[in-house]
Amino acid sequence: MHTYRTHNCNQLTIANVGETVRLSGWVFRVRDHGKLMFIDLRDHYGVTQVVVDKDSEAFQLVQSLNLESVIRVDGKVLARSGDQVNPNLPTGQIEVRAVAVELLSPAAELPLPIAATAEYPEEIRLRNRFLDLRREKLHANIVLRSNVIASLRRRMIAQGFTEFQTPILTASSPEGARDFLVPSRIHPGKFYALPQAPQMFKQLLMVAGFDRYFQIAPCFRDEDARADRSPGEFYQLDFEMSFVTQEDVFAAIEPVLHGVFEEFAEGKSVTPPPFPRITYKESMLKYGSDKPDLRNPIEIVDVTHIFRGGGFGVFASAIEEGAVVRAIPAPGAGVRARSFFDQTNAWAKAEGFAGLGYINFKGGEGGGGVAKNLGPERVAQLVSEMGLGPDDGVFFACAKESIAAKLAGMARTRVGQELDLIAQNEFKFCWIVDFPMFEWDELEQKVIFSHNPFSMPQGEMEALETMNPLDILAYQYDIVCNGIELSSGAIRNHKPEIMYKAFEIAGYDRSVVDEKFSGMINAFQYGAPPHGGSAPGVDRIVMLLADEPNIREVILFPMNQKAEDLMMGAPSTVTPKQLKELGIRFATDTKPAPPTNG
RNA sequence: GGGGUCGUAGCUCAAUUGGUUAGAGCACCGGACUGUCGAUCCGGAGGUUGCGGGUUCGAGCCCCGUCGACCUCGCCA
Predict the structure, then answer these.
(1) Which of chain B's bases lie under 7 Å from a protein CB?
(2) I need a surface site. Which of A116, A151, A365, A582 has the fewest CB within 10 A?
(3) Does the interface predicted TM-score (ipTM) exceed 0.95?
(4) pTM of the model
């Protein structure tokens, strides 16, 4: 007989009745009846009920066991009869009557219950992650993550992509997020950087002629955490393709994402390819965001023209000064108590906006101060242009365009949630396309790249030379699912002259490009194929599929909000010897903490 | 760096207007029980109410400070 087990804890069925078996696992739950005990024995695969009665030599040992001790059980498989069957357990038709039990590893009193489903403080969970990971939901999430990654690989390979590993120790890049730096021992005073993404490497792979690359790529950014953003590190399904247009990229990745979501969505519907294409401009108008949740049926409408010169003085005068008015319909909300509208207005003010105007329609009659001052003709025009129903509500955001769009977008989400309009059993994908190449930085009063400086501007060199930079669009696209940005990507700029020109517009000298992007700009001189790609976030895909709002629920050993690993004690101080080898000494104003056991 | 929420037993939570010895469930220890499956029943141990200061006859509760966790803004080309 095997040293530890003949079967796992999810394996035995009615077919095994009468067999002598050996199981090993954790003591999940114990039910002690004095002369008879039940143990739910758990391993990775499942749970099997073990019965020990007083005549067994094992009885005394079993009575002294703490929960989560690891034991080995030898016993005989018996059928359960009648109401002894547990229909909630795959092994619920049988039980193992213990003959001998060996304690393989005792457990101390637990800082974190394994069997309970309650929520526990992050700090305790992270400090005892190995225990937290035994709990059913988290255990399942991590297995799901593995399965999703395996499926992504399989589907990418089936699409003709090849996986390559790119360097982890690389050069710092001047733009974008903060780099994690790694000091060089051989070159004192110089640093490697961990890649924020394998951006340049994958483009060089295209120049090298590999045609279709992908990688489940670790990426590192030294930025602050959010609920959906790990501090430090995360994974992307990074891919790049040669000789492609934007539509070719979409056609390659849509079946992969659709397929993976269908495979793991457990019955939720998934947008079939081709996913809707929405321009950035349209998205900002209709959804007030560049990552719209299309499960929410509300669409924002510009109604500036209805309020211009109208009787509602606050809006009319704001419009004269360049403001716009965006209307957010609230289907069926007209019959709601006035407090619904007032509370929504109060929420907008609490978010730092001027507030939200509203009209509540009851039986086709518009109520509230806005309707009264605007007058029946213009209200009728509003109803007809927006297609409002007789008992709808409508909110108004009036401000400078960028602020009005943002407020309208947030109000759209809030109203959708309040009115319970957001479908819960759907994954709704879309592409946001035609992002602007440049934008105006109010703070620095200059033109900056709005997304990726390596994107190809639409119209190429001619556009850069003749158009207002702020009007130039890029072959730059995001993929969005249920309001979550899964990735951004682009058709890249593979022509050095256009790249110099684009950087020039953003205020960078030719020499800066030569210095900071030498690897890429140099490579592009020797025959670079037109290419493009994208990089959907793996963590966020798993979050969506696991229906978890917090990214730490889909990561094995996540860091806390302050980018610390409480279990391993990272980051930690290092020994003076290590520092000396690296040629590093601390400035006097940042005294190092005493060495920890790092 | 700014804003918000929170901090009571190993864990989840309670404690009236500021008022007796800070309670309950799970876990742990002891006892009863041969069919439970979140077993049940009886008992026990377990607390510097995050920490420091203040107000008060009296503070878990009020005030000030501080530390920590999470959420969020900035940031994430």
Answers:
(1) 1, 10-13, 26-30, 32-40, 68-77
(2) A116
(3) no
(4) 0.91
